[in-house]
């Protein structure tokens, strides 16, 4: 169990968006049961496409969607896409405001509830986020993305055992899913077990189709163990120069918190 520590809380919130982005990404197939939970992508081309945009492309897309949203704030598809791209741009409070309004307009819509939960978690409102994601789930047709999202929130709330049980349930439904394996790895990062974290991260990165965020997580774990050259090599792998620089900048920013991570690991080791 985590003890409260300002550095730990900041790191939890910082990791929340990363975990939930992977947990709720991906498009539902057309052949899926109509009554099953549909978490669906909230951007054309998927979240991974948005994640690979340059800063200029992200700014242009945000402005374009903002104009569409202002014309009709209750258009479900536009609002979902706009909230997502605001979040990817770091405008977390604005994204949450969009999703809060949409959740009021569509209180029973599971995809809206799932996206609302993600926005709440990104803003650090973890208890309401947990409630929203749980309400989006359907027990008779459990959705692996929502199980993984619930686990990500529980990790931020300092409940790693409950979180890992949910990740394993998600993996039962979607074996070898890289986003879930990556979340499981990040769960061990948060408790200071970097070797176990790296094991799951490498498994995730080895799965065909694993996206840039999975490699970012692996690079982070390798870097936190002091293998900086290897970490930077991983962060640059299979990406355009612009995307690679963005990944390396992310990695350096996270590693700049190294003293905080090390302090947390020492506290957990002595608990």
From TrEMBL:
Alphabetic keyword roster: Repeat, Signal, TPR repeat
Swiss-Prot/TrEMBL TPR repeat ranges: 144-177
A Pfam family assignment: TPR_16
Signal sequence extent: 1-28
Keyword Ribosomal protein applies: no
Record SMART domains: TPR
Protein name: Tetratricopeptide repeat protein
Organism from which the protein derives: Chelativorans intermedius
Lineage of the species this protein comes from: Bacteria, Pseudomonadati, Pseudomonadota, Alphaproteobacteria, Hyphomicrobiales
